[in-house]
Design a protein that fits this description.
With about 350 residues, the chain is α/β, with parallel strands linked by helices. It contains ten helices and 15 strands. It folds into two domains: about 140 residues, Rossmann fold, CATH 3.40.50; about 180 residues, Dihydrodipicolinate Reductase, domain 2 (2-Layer Sandwich), CATH 3.30.360. The strands form three sheets. The chain has a seven-stranded mixed sheet, covered by helices on one side. Bound molecules: NADP nicotinamide-adenine-dinucleotide phosphate (NAP).
Length: about 350
């Protein structure tokens, strides 16, 4: 029997997930949608789906088995808590929430419920290239990891909507999460370096270099560039004691013409991670159908939130900012960042 899914927030990624749940993947039916903009929800609703006035009514509907949250970050906490109160599995796009206090409230509610219900949208963990990279590190064939370089480049961001804090409290969450997951480690502190500013972004502080200090001593060097012009370019390279493991260049058609020999690069995250998003939802549908969640957890969302907060403090202080986490509840497993599935 198909999983009946309600989608909250039918903007850019909400519409993409509705498309994937409706036209690409088996096992789920989008039966309900809601958005602050009711007309937007109405036009995004697949045939037969009910348009709800509020997220609360959608979450409580008997016609909704599981929920996908694609609203903006500050709305996530209330919607997550409502899903947990209703005992419904929920996929929540990153960021989990926008403050440490909010993350702790979601952890408390889920732990009190007694079963994992929340999966956070860290889709890189479902990307085949990242999974192969992790397998090489986990096998230990190159010895212990020493350094990791994570490159996160966006062609552009919406003018005026994207502030100078967002590379650190919005974009960095993906690099923070993938670092913890790849290295099976936690982040103990953060430094930020601000190189020469690109003039392409007006007042935007861009690019940014973030150093993530892992508890093992590994240092992760994250480059965030959000106005790089040429495309969406994600790279990762782990330096180990006896070798280097890196994400491969994405295979793409080689074009030869009067301008030379070249390969296209993805325009944005939708193109680069299309298969990862599909796999992320394939695994979510199975877990939600069993009344639970696997994959990136509330704990992982909490860790990413703390990292963003520490990075913002590091800009202000110019130095190292430590991260202090609560003891990990048993619900989230023993490993620092458990495997995607
Ligand atoms: P978006 O295009 O602005 O869409 C968000 C939608 O949610 C808008 O229609 C918005 O309405 C609506 N909304 C906001 N608050 C709401 C609430 N309380 N209840 C119901 N609807 C609400 O943004 P987006 O790019 O799709 O991003 C949505 C979320 O996905 C964000 O958390 C973002 O960080 C995340 N995201 C993740 C990835 C990834 O790689 N995993 C990529 C892109 C986005 P209004 O416009 O009227 O406010």
């Amino acid at each position: 029997m198909a999983l009946n899914v309600g989608v909250i927030g039918t903007g850019m990624i909400g519409q993409d997930h509705i498309r994937r749940l409706t036209r690409v993947l088996a096992g789920a039916t989008v039966t309900a949608v809601t958005d602050i903009d009711r007309d937007r929800a109405g036009s995004a609703a697949p045939e037969g789906a009910e348009v709800f006035d509020t997220p609360q009514n959608l979450i409580r509907s008997d016609n909704v088995d599981a929920v996908v949250i694609c609203s903006w970050g500050p709305a996530h906490e209330e919607q997550l808590l409502d899903c947990i109160a209703a005992g419904k599995p929920v996929f929540c796009e990153k960021p989990l929430v926008t403050s440490e206090a909010a993350a702790l409230r979601v952890i408390e509610a889920e732990v009190a419920y007694g079963r994992r219900l929340v999966q956070v949208g860290f889709m890189r963990r479902f990307d085949a290239d990242y999974r192969r990279l992790k397998a090489v590190i986990d096998r230990g064939m190159l010895g212990a990891p020493l350094m990791y370089k994570s490159v996160h480049r966006n062609a552009s961001v919406p003018e005026g909507l994207y502030t100078s804090d967002m590379p650190l409290n919005d974009t960095l969450v993906h690099d923070a999460d993938i670092s913890r997951w790849l290295l099976s480690d936690e982040i103990r502190g953060v430094e930020v370096r601000l190189p020469r500013r690109s003039t392409r972004g007006g007042e935007l502080r861009d690019p940014t270099i973030v150093l993530l200090h892992m508890t093992s001593g590994v240092i992760v060097d994250v480059e965030i560039s959000v106005n790089i012009a040429y495309g969406y370019d994600i790279r990762g390279e782990v330096s180990c004691e006896m070798g280097i493991a890196a994400l491969p260049n994405r295979p793409a058609t080689v074009i030869t013409d009067a301008h030379g020999i070249r390969q296209a690069i993805p325009e944005d995250w939708r193109e680069r991670f299309i298969e990862a998003y599909d796999q992320e939802f394939r695994e979510w549908i199975v877990a939600a159908g069993n009344g639970t969640a696997t994959g990136p957890s509330t704990w992982d969302g909490y860790a990413a939130t703390l990292t963003g907060d520490a990075a913002l403090r590091a800009v202000a202080s110019g130095g190292f900012e430590a991260i202090s986490m609560i003891d990990k509840p048993d619900l989230y497993g023993a490993a620092a960042a458990s495997a995607a599935a």
